[in-house]
Design goal:
Elements (H helix, E strand, L loop, with lengths): L1 E6 L4 H10 L5 E6 L3 H7 L5 E4 L4 H6 L4 E4 L13 H21 L4 E5 L9 E5 L10 H15 L7 E7 L2 E2 L5 H12 L15 E2 H12 L6 E5 L7 H11 L11 H10 L3 H8 L2 E3 L2 H7 L7 H11 L3
Helix pairs in contact: 1-7, 4-5, 6-8
């Protein structure tokens, strides 16, 4: 039985990953959260042992095989966090946890980074050879954490995996998908049809599958981009939401300059960028090294997420 410790277990990715791992008898799950009381409530029906401060001594005491580091501050458009918050949590605390892993007997460290650590937009599939150029404090703090992990000399038998997913979606995580869903549900015309972007998406089910494959594999340490197969424009996504909701899509092709002016005037420039920019991500290195195929097609995963909004 593999003994796995996850940080950030009460987040969207954490709760779904615990749920996925719990379906298999081959894992003994341990979890860490800054909000222990919330974690107790969230996982009251799961076989998971909650722990306090993670140290090398604790990892050894619990005989942890794999540490999956999910905790961090996510990319935030509301301005809730200050720049130093990202570096304190995403960079410094990741480095501290990795150093404890290095001193311990644990053998695998999986770090949830982000494609934003490498690039904010890309009109061609971005692979791991890309020269990182993050544009936000979120991306910069994730990249600094990656570099801390990569520069450490690991004892024999230890491996690290830095995962750079694109936008992860699934039931319980709404974001811009839910914004588009509200457009469809309320019958509001989609006004951005003049933008023909291409984006990658990642279903939480495919992400959980990848993590489990990594834990059971012997692939090389390194950076791996994670995404579903294929790409979709925001317009195509809007139409898919309409289809999944049994609604007729209503589309406006407003001039791009007018849309940009309206976004500036309303303080929605960043949101417009997220909806209309290209962000294409290659998953070929990961799938080739794991010698596997993803279990869910991109549209299949998106439809599952869309249908969850009805609840």
């Amino acid at each position: 039985m593999k003994r796995v410790l996850l940080t950030g277990v009460t987040g969207f990715v954490g709760t779904n990953l615990v749920s996925s791992l719990s379906r298999s008898a081959q894992y003994r799950i341990f979890g860490h959260s800054r909000n222990r009381e919330k974690a107790k409530l969230v996982f009251k029906d799961f076989q998971i042992t909650l722990v306090d401060q993670v140290s090398s001594d604790l990892l050894n005491e619990l005989k942890i095989d794999t540490v999956i580091h999910l905790a961090g501050i996510a990319h935030d458009l509301s301005g809730k966090y200050k720049p130093q918050d990202y570096y304190e949590v995403n960079q410094k605390q990741t480095g501290q946890l990795f150093d404890e892993f290095v001193k311990s007997n644990s053998t695998q460290f999986i770090f949830l980074s982000s494609i934003k650590a490498a690039v904010d937009h890309s009109s061609q599939p971005a692979d791991e050879s890309i020269q990182p150029l993050p544009a936000s404090d979120y991306g910069k703090s994730k990249l600094l954490a990656e570099r801390h992990i990569q520069k450490q000399a690991l004892p024999s038998g230890k491996k690290f995996y830095i995962l750079r997913p694109c936008m992860i979606h699934g039931p319980g995580n709404k974001g811009n998908l839910n914004l588009l869903y509200r457009f469809v549900k309320m019958g509001i015309p989609y006004p951005l049809a003049a933008f023909h972007n291409q984006r990658s998406f990642l279903s939480i089910d495919n992400f959980a599958y990848v993590v489990e494959k990594i834990m059971s594999s012997n692939i090389d340490s390194g950076v791996y981009h994670v995404a579903d197969n294929g790409f979709l424009s925001t317009l195509e996504l809007y139409e898919l939401i309409a289809q999944a909701s049994s609604k007729k899509p209503r589309v406006w092709t407003l001039p791009k300059n007018m849309v940009r002016w309206m976004a500036r005037a309303s303080g929605n420039r960043k949101r417009l960028s997220k909806l209309t920019e290209d962000l294409m991500v290659s998953n070929q290195k990961l799938l080739t090294n794991l010698n596997c195929k993803l279990p869910f097609e991109m549209k299949e995963g998106l439809i599952k997420t869309i249908k969850s909004f009805r609840g």
